[in-house]
Amino acid sequence: MTPGNAPGRISVSQMNRRRALQLLAALGTTGLAAACGTDDTETPVVGKPIKVGLIRPENGDGKAIGEDIENGFQLFLAMNGQQLGGHPTTVVTVDEGDNAKSGQAAVDTLLAQNVLAMSGVVNSTVMSGIRDAVEKARVPLIGSNASPPSLQSVVYIWRTSYVLDEPGRALGSYLRRTLPAGSRLAIVAPEGTASQDVINGFRDGFGADDPRIIGAPILTTANPTPGEGEFNAQITEALSRQPDGIFCFYSGTAGEQFIRQLRRSRWFGDIYAPGFLTEGNILTDLRSTLVNADDSLKAGTIQTSLNYSADLNNNANRIFASAYRKTYNVSPTTYAMASYDAAQVLDKAIRLAGAEPTPQQVNLALGKIGQIDSPRGPWQFNQPRTPQQKWYLRKVQFDGRLLSNVLINEIATLG
């Protein structure tokens, strides 16, 4: 927990209020009406105030993802009069920490404040650790990031992100169809259950016995902030197999270091990965590694699979991405989008639950909301309470003068 922050601090801070005002000014009356889908002739009915809990890491390697999650949720509120389902809404933000015990403490804090529902959670270990507490409390949790495949047979946990094996499965099935016969592909990833989920999904999609995958996966340290040279031994082993391409699973600082060390080894083949590898500000930090002095890309592509791209051309994304950029001065990530959708899902369910909703009524309503008009494209909950959604191939290339994850095409529908 950040020093000086009480466990149940109210997250409608002066900064968030300023951002909300900036957004309203940026959108203007016409833009706000379009974003909210309201009719000026209708008089809105305001219900009783409610509280919603937001669980996110406030320190460590997951902090940046936590900030995206909070930004996405708060953006939806700002675009909808600080209401969910017609009820004035206060968001109570708590630190999830990085283990089951800290996650349990976060849930206990929110339950003590009588929240109507909860959202967030970045760390898969935290999500698995709070499963039983959420189910016992019978208060719905809309997870907007962490989604291990082992999270099964839940009633009160819903997820607006993805199941962790799906990014690899989508990319694996695409590469199975498109990589030429005789290609050689190595797999490199950090130790841990999340990596195993991603690798299993990739091998399921590609074909575990396909001869184009050379050797067993090579595992590196799971250190989220590795030093320079920390991956050298594993990179040397991978390159000894003479691959044409490498499939990997990293994010944040670890992803940046892996790409730097790989290119420093004078290997310029293609890199394939779930989109977390290049989400956030990593491409800005890697510009000198990926771009020549004449502003052309160096050899070797980086292609990733993800359920979202900030340049998707649909009305919901045009509204969301424009508002996000105007409010936070950066393009939205999949983390921000999934949290925005979590707020949208709660908005629909709380409205369906009636004038005085209870957590149990909201949970029942979540199963009735149907299709979501999302920035990622339309999706809906499947039976395991995860999205049935499209997956996209993105390629690192210039969008104007900005190095970006440029949408190439749709590659799968999973869920």
Structure characterization notes:
The chain has 415 residues and is an alpha/beta fold. The chain folds into 2 domains: 50-162 and 312-381, Rossmann fold (3-Layer(aba) Sandwich), CATH 3.40.50; 165-306 and 393-414, Response regulator (Rossmann fold, 3-Layer(aba) Sandwich), CATH 3.40.50. It has 13 helices and 14 strands. The protein has helices at 14-36, 63-79, 100-112, 124-137, 166-178, 193-206, 232-239, 252-264, 282-285, 287-290, 315-328, 334-353, 359-366; strands at residues 50-56, 83-84, 87-95, 117-120, 141-143, 157-159, 185-190, 218-220, 245-248, 270-274, 302-306, 380-381, 387-399, 402-414. Strands 7, 8, 9, 10, 11, 12, 13 and 14 form an 8-stranded mixed sheet that branches. It has a 6-stranded mixed sheet with strand order 2-3-1-4-5-6. Helix 5 (166-178) packs parallel to helix 6. The radius of gyration is 21 Å and the shape is globular.
What's the alpha carbon Rg, rounded to whole Å?
21 Å
- Order of SSEs: HEHEEHEHEEHEHEHEHEHHEHHHEEE
What is the CATH third-level topology name of the largest domain? Rossmann fold
Helical amount: 25-40%
What is the CA-CA span between the terminal residues? 35 Å
Shape label: globular
Structure annotation, total helices: 13
Please report the total strand number as a whole number: 14
Write the CATH architecture name of the largest domain: 3-Layer(aba) Sandwich
